[in-house]
Specification:
By secondary structure, this protein is mainly beta. The chain is built from two helices and 24 strands.
Length: 338
């Protein structure tokens, strides 16, 4: 009886151990599957279409490449800059990755490096990249994204609204501290007591600026369409031109001679920076038409429209939010502007 009892006990014990091992394997498999599902979860809005450039417009821009990018959730300000033959954008190249700051080779679109972090705005000059996040501004190397310096905006919960590097000055604005001039080499504010005021009369803070040496441009607002406008900055604000329709859906990218922006009429417009005269127009096919493609009048995907121009290398980059596409163009437009 004892031997039989021992055998029964041992058999039960073995069954229990086998059951526990089986249960462990099942639970571990479920955990792996869950991790895989989380890893593969689509976190960016899916493309609504695939765009191409109308063939008749090829004499203005030469298409170099296109690639899939995701930007509509990444930036509330400037989402892309181009300099020295490369392009940098805030977003992701994969629909399952949250992303961050990504550097691409300008002539072929290959990834140079990535810095995964939550940034809201980006600018650049020949010395560095400048990115803003929640209360912080970082200067990073163009070559690798390594940090050069960082600085915290004054006040609490003071998110970066925009930043723009022009020569030795970094124009910045915080949600709770107004606008300031910073030293691009150190990040120090030049004069806290005298904040910089970038907004011309009648321009709301939601309409994010593009600042150049002598002009300031306004395109689409953070949550609204708008007309495009250009202002002379010095010695005082003087309106140079303004588009008739409030149909601008992107920032305005500006070189020394040409201003580029997108409209919800399927157009990439090129205007003289001084007069607003139309120099060229590119059409995208099929239609971008917001009011047919979106169920609501405004969504996160509306923020996925960005332009950047590399004036030195005659390169233009365009991101279309409804198709999750980046286009790289060689600029062929003759811009002999006085």
């Amino acid at each position: 009886f004892k031997e039989r009892g021992f055998f029964i006990y041992t058999q039960k014990h073995m069954k229990t151990k086998h059951y526990q091992a089986y249960l462990f394997i099942v639970l571990f498999s479920i955990l792996l599957s869950s991790c895989k599902l989380l890893e593969d979860k689509i976190i960016w809005p899916e493309a609504l279409t695939t765009h191409s450039v109308a063939q008749e417009d090829n004499h203005l821009l030469d298409l170099l490449w296109t690639r899939e990018v995701y930007t509509s959730l990444a930036s509330e300000g400037t989402g892309m800059v181009a300099i020295d033959g490369n392009v940098f954008f805030l977003g992701s190249t994969q629909p399952t990755e949250r992303g961050g700051l990504i550097a691409l080779q300008g002539y072929d679109g290959k990834i140079l490096w990535q810095k995964l972090d939550s940034f809201r705005d980006i600018s650049a000059n020949s010395e560095a990249l400048y990115v803003g996040g929640q209360s912080w501004i970082f200067a990073l190397t163009l070559e690798s994204g390594d940090e050069i310096w960082s600085t915290k905006l004054p006040g609490l919960r003071n998110n970066v609204m925009y930043l723009y590097a022009v020569d030795d000055i970094l124009y910045t604005a915080g949600s709770n501290s107004g606008e300031h001039l910073k030293n691009v080499k150190t990040g120090e504010i030049y004069d806290v007591s005298q904040p910089f005021r970038s907004l011309p009369p009648g321009i709301l803070a939601a309409y994010l600026p593009t600042i150049t040496k002598d002009k300031i441009f306004y395109g689409a607002g953070k949550d609204a369409f708008s007309s495009g406008s250009a202002w002379q900055r010095q010695p005082y604000y003087d309106l140079l031109w303004k588009t008739e329709e409030e149909n601008v859906i992107s920032n305005i990218a500006a070189s020394d001679k040409v201003a580029y922006f997108l409209t919800y009429n399927d157009e990439l417009l090129m205007l003289d920076v001084n007069t607003g005269e139309r120099l060229g127009i590119i059409h995208f096919e099929p239609s971008i038409n917001f009011f047919e493609n979106f169920e609501v009048s405004w969504s996160s995907q509306h923020r996925g429209y960005h332009l950047a121009v590399d004036d030195k290398n005659n390169l233009l980059y365009v991101i279309l939010g409804d198709s999750n596409q980046m286009f790289a163009f060689q600029i062929l437009l003759d811009t002999e502007v006085e």
